[in-house]
């Protein structure tokens, strides 16, 4: 094995052991900078010689199937590795040219046992609400939230719960597949091969699915096909980027989806946010490095679940100003789960 190969594996192992969700590799004129995203916050990890950083960039690009000779355009790719304890890890590699350095961001997706749906919400009553959504047999369920807020993790947990409740044929359409699951029929997008969300959705509808999961609604075509699939009597789950649950309605209307179609098919809109829990030992969300609770999963999700009468009112008024997550943050403060400063930072 080459030295740079060993260094890259060591870097990935260190990130995995610390529970990092992303690795950021950037540089200055003098050296390379490595940072990890831990619990949603970017933390400095190491400075390395510039030449080593450039070799690492080339190595990750080559391993992810990118063009190592192309440094003027952004590129993205993926690769799978088996690192620690024989746990496979899926990596999504993205490059971004800058005046000083070709920056690389690596998203880590350990292929471990999916989280149980009951363990994801900070407020336990919301787990029951999510479980009840999976008893539906048709309609459109949308998850929204910031990048890295755990939407796809929640989607997988919801699908797994649906399988436990009854035998279903579940088809997923993703870019890329973040968690391999033999119980699902999984389709991965590949724009170079012209395998788009549109192509995947058309194929999925011919594959006799009970449930269709769409990794992300990004454009008008995907939005229209998602609504059409729900109108044909399937249960469709998808993620979409918007400011809040009610803002999802505005976003879909801007994509060209008719409001009367949304009223007919949308079962629920779920806004999600990851928030740092207050440590029961340090009585703070900022733990001491010696805290024994530090290695536990510090972040949990809060949800604004828009369904039923509230959903119909939102679809009628189409008002995106109300922030239901703010209400859930205040409730979490009252229960002593999070600090007030954490809620204020999220509200900014």
What does this 3D model show about the protein?
The strands form 2 sheets. The chain has a 7-stranded mixed β-sheet with strand order 9-8-10-11-7-12-13, sandwiched between helices. Helix content is 34%, strand content 27%. The protein is built from 11 helices and 13 strands. A hairpin with a 3-residue loop joins β1 (22-27) and β2. α1 (3-17) crosses α2 (50-63) and α5 runs parallel beside α6. The protein has 2 domains: 3-110, Beta-Lactamase; 117-347, 3-Layer(aba) Sandwich (Rossmann fold), CATH 3.40.50.300. With 348 residues, the protein is of the alpha/beta class. The protein is globular.
Give me some keywords for this one:
348 residues; alpha/beta; Beta-Lactamase; Rossmann fold; 2 domains; seven-stranded mixed sheet; six-stranded antiparallel sheet; 11 helices
